[in-house]
Structures are given as structure tokens and as C-alpha cells.
Amino acid sequence: MMAALGYKSGTALGATRPSEYNGQADTRLLVPVGLELKEGRSGIGADAEKKRKFREELAAKEEDLKKRKVDEGDFRERQQKEREDNRMEGQVFGAMKVCEGLAEEGETGSKQPPTSKRHKKPLSRVHVLWRSLVKQRALQERDRRMRYDLHQSLSRRPTYDDPDEDRDDKIAMGKKLELEEEDLELDLEDEELDAFEGLHVADRLQKLVSYLREEWNYCFWCKYRYPNASMEGCPGTTEEDHD
């Protein structure tokens, strides 16, 4: 019937549009509009909303993943920095001990290694670069004496006095000696020491290393005291120079 009306297979239905006469292609549909069966009972446009939510959730997950990667990187960086700071703290402690030993050698003229029975002087007269080392050792000694005093007070009468008691025993027994003055000095404020300890560990280490080189021609990285200020043979002033 449609063929009788002039329809030809592969052509569009309806009258020919004027655009064909201008040399343009026929834009009419050649096939019927297709049908899509809808499954489910959701309304029109619900699928588009689901897709939108899915895209938003996917974008949120990607953002969260990026944030976790950044946090993990920051955590590893912090851990690495803490390990490096702890390593330098150990180097600062070692440099302090070297400074103290060389200072005692200069005062006494002896090259014997320092012992626990050091020549004691007021804490304020100790150089600030290694004053905290001396102070820490004095605090530990005071704590040891206090524990010993407490133990002895529970086992001996305070009026007991042994004429053969040496100085160390008398100190341990809590007798009033000149060390009381030193103990009081440990509790005094020390702004100079606080300022030095407030520096970053790398700055404190640099000051100690520089002082050793300038004062005693000693390279902390070479572990060697050179005969003169030229320090010929030393690779440099930093740890990296000695790698």
C-alpha cells in the first residue's frame, strides 16, 4: 500500500523538503524511532540521577586516595626527619664530650682521658657549648646522692659519725659540705644555656664543630687534631665533605 503511494525502500516518509533543492542532504529519519523497554519502577530521569551520584562518589574516592597518598608521604618525611634529628643529637653529645676533654687538657696540661672525678668549677664558668653536658652529669650525681642518702637514713642513725669515713662517704651520708652550694646552682635559671638549647640541633652541631676547628684545630668528622690552623688534609667542614 505504501509503495502504491510512492514510498521507496530506504527513503524517508513524507513530502520532500525544500532543502533538497539547495543541494543539501536529506536530514529526515530513514528508520523509525527505536523503543527502549524500561525496567524497574523508578521515574523518568532516575537513571541520570544515579549516574550523577555515581560520578560524585567516584570523584570523592579519588580525592580521598590522593589525600591518603599525600598523608603517607608526609608521615614518611616526618619519620625521616625525626631519625635525622636523633642522629644529630647523638653527634652533638659526642662533640660536647670532645670539647670538654680538650678544654680540660688545656687547663691541666694532661692528655689523660677524662674520668668521672673531674676538676669541678662553677657551672656558670663552663663554656655554654658543653655546659648542658656538665649540668646533666651533675644532676645525675645529685639524684644518686639523694637516693643514697635516703637509703642510709633508713639504715643508720643520723648522729653516727665514723672518723675513718672518707669524703665520698660523707657526701653520701648527707653531711653538709661544699657540694650544697653546687647543688643550688643547678636550680638557677641560665638564660645563655636556654638560648643555646633552643637552637635547632643542626645549628648547635654546627657551632660545636666550628668551635673545635677554630679553638683546637680539631675536625670532628676526621676525629683528628691537626698540628696547625691550616688543617691540611681535612676534606672540609661538613659531614658530606667526608663521605
Q: In order across it, which strands form the biggest sheet?
A: 1-2
Compute the separation of the termini in Å. 98 Å
Strand percent estimate:
under 5%
Radius of gyration, taken over Cα atoms and rounded to an integer in Å: 43 Å
Mean pLDDT: 79
Spans of 5+ residues with little confidence (pLDDT < 50)? none
Percentage of residues assigned to helices: 40-55%
Q: Quaternary status of these chains?
A: single chain
Shape category: elongated
What is the element string, with H for helices and E for strands?
A: HHHHHHEE
Total DSSP E strands: 2
Report the biggest beta sheet as strand number plus sense, adding barrel if it closes: 2 strands, antiparallel
Structure report:
The protein is mainly α and 243 residues long. The mean pLDDT is 79. It has a two-stranded antiparallel sheet with strand order 1-2. The longest helix has 63 residues. Helices cover 53% and strands 2% of the residues.
Using brief descriptors, characterize the structure shown.
single chain, 243 residues, mainly alpha, two-stranded antiparallel sheet
What would a concise description of this structure say?
This protein is mostly helical.
